[in-house]
Amino acid sequence: MITTINLTKKYNGNTVLNNLNLNIEKGEIFCLLGQNGAGKTTTINLLMGFIKATSGEAQINGYTISPGNTKARKYLAYIPEVVQLYGNLTGIENLDFFSKIAGFKYSKKELVSLLDKVGLQQNAHLNKLSSYSKGMRQKVGIAIALAKNADIIFMDEPISGLDPKATVEFTAICKELAKEGKSIFMATHDIFNAVKVGTKIGIMKEGCLVYTTYTNKINANELQDLYLKTI
Ligand SMILES: Nc1ncnc2c1ncn2[C@@H]1O[C@H](COP(=O)(O)OP(=O)(O)OP(=O)(O)O)[C@@H](O)[C@H]1O
């Protein structure tokens, strides 16, 4: 689905992403770990086509990802750490608005069913977004990604600031989406949740992907030890 070949980003001659070679398959949940400044957000920015690579390439479904390549962009969705939507619109109005911008028109029933699917409680659908918690905003963000029919959803620090119940709900939603064939790429600092939610883990250090493993081959304590030795 998504492939990178020697993907590299430099700022003023400073390499912040160094020859990234990565494959993410359909139904995979890839969790990228790494210290502050390791290059995780830069990787997401490149894979979303928000910024231009200095060298190398990233492809989704055979299309090169780059700023301005709308063919590649339609397969991609991005959920930032804090989902910024229109505070004076309701959850359902935001979903309707952003779906239309992406070229999709849904009936009220379909919009409700998308919000149900991501677990947004029905009594919140008609409340203004300004009253939503972080976890509720995130659910609307995921619903928008589904409405756009994106194949891969990128998330930057999706778990930070979520309470334990919201984290469990979020994990379940991600697993359900993966079962349906969506791919998820998340940058996270939460080693224990990465093992729970992810199918594959990567550890990044100073712009290099130094380690990848499948979560069925490692437990949380082993990953923590490995992480601390690696970074
Ligand atoms: N626009 C920019 N200009 C110059 N340097 C940048 C720019 N964007 C990022 N960097 C540098 O690239 C490096 C990687 O940053 P990045 O934000 O990708 O790290 P990160 O792993 O996401 O960190 P965090 O966990 O803190 O979010 C850092 O040294 C950062 O200062």
TrEMBL record:
Is Lipid metabolism among the key words of this record?
A: no
Show where the ABC transporter domain sits: 2-231
- Tell me the keywords, alphabetical order: ATP-binding, Nucleotide-binding, Transport
A Pfam family of this chain: ABC_tran
The UniProt entry, under CDD domains, shows: ABC_DR_subfamily_A
Output one GO MF annotation: ATP binding
Protein's UniProt keywords contain Nucleotide-binding: yes
Q: What is this protein called?
A: ABC transporter ATP-binding protein
